[in-house]
């Protein structure tokens, strides 16, 4: 292994607690962005015995995550990912983590697996259903639900945020399990998933006290101040239900011959070719992989689409330009289809700008290094938690002038998408072999939803009781996946295409 050398620059650590006080608690990407001006594009922090590396620029991302990707393939051994019993024996910390992993019920989610054969196996299984050559299968369902969303928005825009979420959720559940879901939060399967995913934020690195002080999970639950442990027990049940209930429903539908084409059906059919008795190990993988789509796909896609609505309300000229493009290419007698996409550069620029403007996962998902490494003379110790400040990269004023403004035109040159401009799609979905396997599917969802909405609706700012637009300072949430949470858009039909929505009913 390499000889330890100078660590990358960063604030001076204190005895015992290291840089714990230097790590920003709320919207850390903003604080890290400021610190990078002082310390540079590769920063080092120390907290509770771990090195935390923050990358602030595309070149360093490329060098570490792409060129030396095998070093950065793992995930932090958080409370979530300590899955391997074999690892427990020689790591007391991990052992506590392991206890909590089972308490939280997230030990089956491959997004948190450490690097190893199990991750590879799951990853291959997910990718088989989401790589670009197969996702066109899902277009009809994505299109249908984008259109159902239009009627819902028209009938009640006070629940816009919820309607958008149900539309994405219903599509994910339908393509995965092949069962009917009503596009409403009261649907049993949708609400099972919603209960399950609530707990994700709790367990992501840094957001839980248990993360830094895992021994807390050992306390007996009758002690005062241990309410979080009882919460854990409850959320664990919810997490298991989201994994098991839809899977069992899909199997039942299959055995009764009423299952439509779906990811679950194709997995079960493949299993039954393996042997007469379904191999339980493989069935477990199929069940886990099925549930991952919702767990990983809902908050992210929802955040991006909510930000899209806010952008449209704030930038009416962008909306008008997009509608002019849609009128010219799609025309007013039908709704947009996937086949239109290549002819809609302005819509495509809006998608890029939406991803960039308020990045949905501003620090991505943490990686962990599994070997010592050296980058430009700086030593990156094995076991470092490595994160990319995607927010910084997407707000670099040298690349995106006036980055706080929503300007789709920044991606254009002479009426076409300019390949020379840094593409948000290459950053928002992560890096290296752990890049989001759902990115092409997610991109398709964004396209059909955004095109359908712009074609038929006008989006406006929130209004007060006198119908006057309300001015608000935008506020984003903090956490793994973030969105603007204090801006409720309103919608009205576009007169030119209103008939198209009415005809859907
Ligand atoms: C706009 C929507 C989405 C965004 C912004 C997004 C973003 C991300 C990011 C940043 C990562 C971490 C990559 C890394 O470690 O470097 C990730 C991982 C992942 N995403 Fe997505 N994602 C989205 C939608 C989806 C969808 C729809 C699915 C499922 C079909 C999905 C499945 C996954 C899975 C399974 C992982 C874990 C990969 C691994 O650890 O090997 N994502 N996503």
From TrEMBL:
InterPro entries cross-referenced by the UniProt entry: Cyt_P450 (IPR001128), Cyt_P450_CS (IPR017972), Cyt_P450_E_grp-I (IPR002401), Cyt_P450_sf (IPR036396), Cytochrome_P450_fung (IPR050364)
Pfam families per record: p450
UniProt feature coiled coil, ranges: none
Domain of life the protein comes from: Eukaryota
Membrane topology field: Single-pass membrane protein
Compartment annotation: Membrane
Binding site for heme: 436
Broad class of where this protein is predominantly found: membrane
SUPFAM superfamilies per the UniProt record, alphabetical: Cytochrome P450 (SSF48264)
Cofactor(s), names only, from the UniProt record: heme
CDD domains: CYP64-like
One Gene Ontology MF term: oxidoreductase activity, acting on paired donors, with incorporation or reduction of molecular oxygen
KW Aminoacyl-tRNA synthetase (keyword) present: no
Pathway(s) per entry: Secondary metabolite biosynthesis
GO cellular component: membrane
Keywords: Heme, Iron, Membrane, Metal-binding, Monooxygenase, Oxidoreductase, Signal, Transmembrane, Transmembrane helix
Family annotation (PANTHER family): P450, PUTATIVE (EUROFUNG)-RELATED (PTHR46300:SF7), P450, PUTATIVE (EUROFUNG)-RELATED-RELATED (PTHR46300)
Family according to the record: Belongs to the cytochrome P450 family.
Official protein name in the record: Cytochrome P450
Originating organism: Dichomitus squalens
